[in-house]
Structure formats: structure tokens, C-alpha cells
Amino acid sequence: MNNELFEKATRLNETLVEQFGKAAEMQMNAFRRYADVTMEQAKKVSEVRDLESLKSLTGDQAETLKSLSEQFSADWKAWQDYFNESREQIQKVFEKAPEETAKPGPKAAK
Asked: Nearest to residue 16, comparing CAs of 96, 95, 97, 85?
């Protein structure tokens, strides 16, 4: 019993480390994308010198907002997939492994 509990705890720790690593990577990628968009927009705003460049910026920002909206949706879907995968992986840890059920126990071997 203790050995089984130890094995489950080990598998749980491995699963959690793997899933936290994926979450950190997703967060860093999203942060980079949104920081790049922010810096790009700040640069464009700083280059506005007249009414024409302001009109151009306004049109460009509408496209940027549409792109951001699509990216937010994609990121949200990716997080939902991540949470579903994490839940499935953690549930697997607590299910009996197939090799555990196939092995005869110490009492069955006697």
C-alpha cells in the first residue's frame, strides 16, 4: 500500500511539473505577443505628425484590435485545452496503472 501511494505521489509530482511547465510557456508566449503589439502601437503613435498619419493610425488600430480579438479567442481556447489536458493527466495518476492490476499481489503468489 505504501509503495503504491509513493508511486502515485511520484506520478502526480511529475504530472504537475510537466503541466506547470506548459502553463508557464503559454504565459510567456502570450506575454511576448501582447508586449510586441503594445510596443508596435506605441511606436506608431509616436510617429504621428499630422492629420493624415493620425487617420492612418486610426485605421491601423481597428485592424490591430480585430487581430487582438482573434488572438484572445485563440489564447482562451488554448487555455481551455490546457485545463482539460491537465485534468485528464491528473485523473490518470489516481487510476490504477494496467501493470498494477496485471501483477499478482504478495498474497496471490503464495
From this structure: 85
As given in the structure block, the three cell numbers for residue 100 are 498494477
| The model's pTM | 0.69
48 CB-near residues (< 8 Å, 6+ apart) = 54, 57
pLDDT digits (tens, 9 = 90+) for 41-86: 999 999 989 999 899 899 899 899 999 999 999 999 999 999 999 9
Return d(Cα 76, Cα 13) in angstroms, integer. Answer: 26
Residue with cell 485528464: 88
Instruction: Give CA separation, 29 vs 17, 42, 109, in Å.
Output: 18, 20, 53
Task: With beta carbons less than 8 A apart as the criterion, state whether 63 and 37 touch.
Answer: no
The Cα diameter of the chain in Å comes to: 91
Helix (H, G, I), strand (E, B) or coil at 108: helix
